[in-house]
Amino acid sequence: MTNIAVTTWSLEQTAPTDLLPAAAPDGDVRIVRSEVPSPEFSRFLYASVGGDIRWTDRLGWTYARWREHLERPGVETWVAYDRGTPAGYVELTPGGDGVVEIEYFGLLPAFRGRRIGGHLLSYGTARAWDLAERWPGLAATKRVWLHTCSKDGEFAMDNYQRRGFRLFDTKVEEEPEVATPGPWPGAFPA
């Protein structure tokens, strides 16, 4: 098995005023919170969005592991729908002390390049800033952060920076090269 060098960039906002919202795309695009924890739906989103960019860390999760994660207080999944069809999602995970991570964010391949991503990231980031308003007992958000890497889409870093995220760390690590898993085995060419 061969290894590849993967660069991971960590970015943050430290005040709600850091957010630079994108304009809403044309058409019937809606963003809705998935309020009922659903391992099936969350795994569908994860595999469908990340299948062509080698998201693999959660593919081995059991149903119980998905449920445990999704039922943690403050974990939220916000889904973008284009004319009723899931187009992408953003997953928020509180880390304590007012820190919220945008743990996953992205669009299904068919919905990329249509201005939905900037809008979804803007909306999801705003929901990270007001997360404590929906979850009594959580500290008010003081920092929102995320990471992206060289395996992600070519416009990911630009989208984050255009929304007001600032780079605070860069790491380069060797990782085993894995085949593109697709939303199901064999969906994308290796």
UniProtKB/TrEMBL annotation:
According to its UniProt record, the EC number is 2.3.-.-
Query: Where, if anywhere, are coiled coils annotated?
Result: none
The record's InterPro entries line, in alphabetical order, gives:
Acyl_CoA_acyltransferase, GNAT_dom
Q: Its domain of life?
A: Bacteria
Keywords recorded for this protein, A-Z: Acyltransferase, Transferase
Q: Which residues form the N-acetyltransferase domain?
A: 29-190
Descriptive protein name: GNAT family N-acetyltransferase
Q: Which organism is it from?
A: Streptomyces plicatus
